[in-house]
Each structure stands twice: as structure tokens, then as C-alpha cells.
Amino acid sequence: MGSALLLCGPGIGSNRGIARAEGSFGFEQVKRMAAERASRPYQPPEETMPAVLRDMSYDQYRAIRFRPSSALWADGNGFKAQFFHRGFLYRRRVRVGIVEDGIVTPVAYRPDMFDLGGLDVPDLPDLGFAGIRLHHPAGGGSTGDEFAVFLGASYFRLIARGQEYGISGRGVAVNTGGSEPEEFPDFTEFWIERPEAGAEEITVLALLDGPSVTGAFRFRLRPGDTTRARVDASLVLRRPVGQLGLAPLTSMFLHGENGPRGFDDFRPEMHDSDGLLMLDGAGEWSWRPLVNGRPSPLATGYAMAGPGGFGLMQRDRDFASYLDVQAMHERRPSLWVEPRGDWAQGVLELYEFPSLEEYNDNIVAYWVPRRPPDPGRPLDFGYDLTVMDGGTGLYPLGRVTGTHIGSAERLRPTVPPSPERRFFVVDFEGDGLPGHGAGLSADVTASAGAVVEPVVEHVPQTGGWRLYFEYRPVEDAPAELAARLMRSDRVMTETWRFTW
Question: Which of 108, 93, 102 has its CA nearest to residue 9?
Fold first, then answer.
């Protein structure tokens, strides 16, 4: 076999700081690196760069283009790897290596890999890269065959064929929504295993480092109509943390059918995800619609004995709901996490913070183990991540398709007026739901306050069913609302949940 330099194509060369292990490099070596790094004081990644890159604008950064001819395996018809230039917000250097037959060959930065968009950059040093992007003919949206991006902190984004980027995954969430300052560890090094000719899967290894935690990750990625990622991880704490979130998902929800109504926007809805879908260890499916516009951030925890799965979903796939020709929110992906092994007791947490801008990712969902690991002791876990459309084929129960909230006082005036009363309308649809005359009933509960006169009716326009009920809250008392449709003692729908 020829040398790795010749086999890997353009852009390969020497690069100090990346280990070279003769014929043995793999995930176990990255785990050992993470454990060793956790025993040493944290050193932030290198950010040194020319001022013209550090101070560049968003538009200048977007104008930088990687030259496809410089991609790894550019001459093949399978997987290809490209790179992101450093600059703007992406100042931290990541190192990249190619693994073939267990041998690592570093990828060296070259200025001619990039079209800098007319930017005047004098005598660029060996800058390294800001991140990586992966391409394959089986994946990609309107911009081509790109299906995976690793860029910024420990963020990564995936799409299936025909989708547009939206929701992100993250390696780990540290103190998200807690009383301690949130940390954003970085993927500081990547290793891409060279795929065989005709391979349908590619493996990326990553080393994570941050002030409180290090980690090793293995992503086995398979693009297609439904892109899949098999994720293995090992986290090691440097020091105790207030909250450790596993398999975090990050998305954007600005406004939707359930509010807020104060946005002066021609688009009826604006979001990358519209709800959190949950499967608990007992087999109950639940749907929690996302909310923006509260006066302060809200963290909602759902305790369970191990999650069966969870995901932030873009369930509404109708262009008429968004009316945005360029953004195409109806084509944003949904990410579904299925844990492997026993994740034991813990809390599935949803964190929502108020936002007035569509470029803010203001939604995070993640699993919090009840007992975080002690510093220095590895926490090994794995999960399967599926990139899909709305996720409506995951189970046969009826699903929530709409949540609408308004004033009950307007519909049913009282003397004296009671403007705190709210009127909820929840729509359910699904092939498993019966038609008119089936006699469905509602099981509606509230942890505080009162539920008044729930009514269920068939909706001939959609073939689904609608639940109406009035909710009378208790002043200054938070509450968890839950509702599902029943036929006698048989559960017909997922459980709708809402935090008041």
C-alpha cells in the first residue's frame, strides 16, 4: 500500500501537536487522551490570528469559500471532507487528522484551499481550521451534498436528503439553565477515518476539552433520506459541576401558533423546532410544545427511570405555516435521540429562554443523570441519533398538531371579570384515531389550579379531534398541565404537556 500522504489527496502534511500512533489509533486512544488531559489544568485553544480575520464582519466571513478541488478524496464519488476557515466568531483552532489502517496523518492548512472572497490577508501563517464539513451524494439539501458540519464549541449539525440546516447537536451541556455560569467546551481535535470505496458510513473521532470536563467522541455517520449517527462518548470531569447534560439538542423557537403574538412579522410562525417529543422508561409518549415570550428563562424537568428517547422536532411541515421562501423552515430537520444501554434515573430537561431574534438558539433539551460522575472517573455512554422530518412515524398513537391559547373571559364572561382564566384548544391527528361518532373522552390534569369542562369533538375538516378546556390558574403558582384522549380505558394519543 502506498503512503498515507498519496492516498489522502490534497491538503495533507505535517502538523505539530497531533499524535501519530503506528497502526493502533482509534476511539480507545482518544479516550485515554481525554482522561490524561482531565488530570492537567485547562488550557484554552489557540486563538492567535491576523487582525483582519479576528475583526472581520459576518458578511466577510460568509464570503470565504473552500475550494472543492482541495477536499479530502475530491477525486472520488463517495465521501468528501472540507474545512472551515478561522475568523469572525470562529477563532479557536481545531486540529484535523486522517486515520488509515490505524495510522494518523495530520491535515495541514494551506491558504490556497480557500477563496478568501477578496479579503486582503498578508502572508497567512499556519492557521489551522475552525471546523469540518462532510459531503456525500446520498445527503444534502438545496446547497448540494453536504450533510454534516462540526463548527464552534462542541456543536454539530446534520441533515437528511432534501432538508435545510436548523437544529444542532452538542457534545455536552455544562450548567445550562442552572445557577452557575454555563460552560461551552470545545471539540479541539478531529480525526476522520478514511472510508473504503463505496462505503455508506464514515467515522469521525473528536476530543473535547473545557474548563470542567474533557471527553472522547466517536460519530459513525450514515447519510440518506433518513440520516443516522451512532454516537459513543466518554466524559471525564476535571472538577464537580452543577449540572451535566448528555446528548444536548439546541434549537430556535421565536413564535408559533401558541404565541407570543407581539411580533410584527409577516410570517405566521418562525422556528426550527416546535416541540419536545419524549418517550419515558414506562413507554408513555409525550409532546411538549415550545414557548417563547415568558418574562424569564424557564427550565422544566421531566423525571424518569431512564429515557426511551427524546427529540426536538419540527413537526409542522407546511410551507403555509411559515411563508419564508428563503429560510424554508418547513424543511428543517428533527433530531431523535435513542439511548443505548441503561441511562438509569435522571431528568429530561427542557430549557427555554426568551428571545426577540431568530438567530438566537433559545431552546435546549438534554438528559441530566441523577448521579453525575466523580471528577477523574469516566462516564461512558452511547446513543443513536436519527435525522428525520416530523417524526410522525415513530409510533401509531394520535399526535398533537396544534396548541392554541386565549382568554376564557372573552368567551365566557364572568361578573366580576376574571382575566386570569385561560382557554386551551389542543388538536390531535393521526391514522390511528377513529372517525366521527367514536366517543372519545379527555383525561386532563393540572398540578395546580383547576381544569374546567373539558370537551372533545371530531374535526371533519382534518379528520382529527379537538380538545377544549378552561384553565383557572392559582396566582403566582406554576403548574404542569397534561392531557390525552381516551376510548374507554384505551389510550388513543400521546400525552400533551404544558408548563404554566
Answer: 108
